[in-house]
Design brief:
By secondary structure, the protein is mainly alpha-helical. The chain contains six helices and no strands.
Length: 148
């Protein structure tokens, strides 16, 4: 039983990075497909669509930082906390990356035909990013309470 609890601690330590990266991969892929579609329909201004397609990559960066903050010797006392915080943060980052990819794809599709709405079309993607930041910051704060 102790080895299973210890294994869950290791899983929780790596989960924010792994799940955040999965969300970033799918989010960037979804937005990237929309960017590629926009490239064939417009004559210039390609850079803005490529930049939007990269926005969901921040979730992987947040996951790296949380994983490094959770890094410590795993024992019976800290494994449950590391597991819970790591898994829940990882899930939040993954879903945020997926949602941000969708909102970025919508922003690309909307602004390719009407460039004057480019800035405002990014507002939903920024809102989704805000929720990822909440999960990130609170994971950092709560990790201080997990025994070393």
């Amino acid at each position: 039983m102790d080895s299973m609890i210890m294994s869950l601690g290791w899983l929780g330590m790596y989960a924010p990075l792994a799940l955040g990266a999965v969300g970033s991969m799918f989010g960037c892929a979804r937005a990237g497909m929309a960017a590629c579609g926009a490239l064939v329909e417009i004559e210039s201004g390609y850079g803005r669509f490529i930049a939007i397609a990269a926005m969901p990559s921040s979730q992987a960066i947040f996951g790296v930082v949380v994983t490094m903050v959770l890094r410590r010797d795993i024992n019976i006392a800290n494994s449950p906390g590391i597991f819970g915080l790591g898994i829940l943060t990882g899930i939040a980052l993954m879903l945020s990356g997926l949602a941000q990819g969708s909102t970025c794809a919508s922003a690309i599709n909307a602004s390719k035909s009407k460039l004057d709405i480019f800035g405002i079309s990014l507002a939903p993607a920024a809102l989704v990013e805000g929720f990822a930041v909440f999960a990130f910051v609170f994971a950092l704060v709560l990790s201080a309470g997990i025994p070393k």
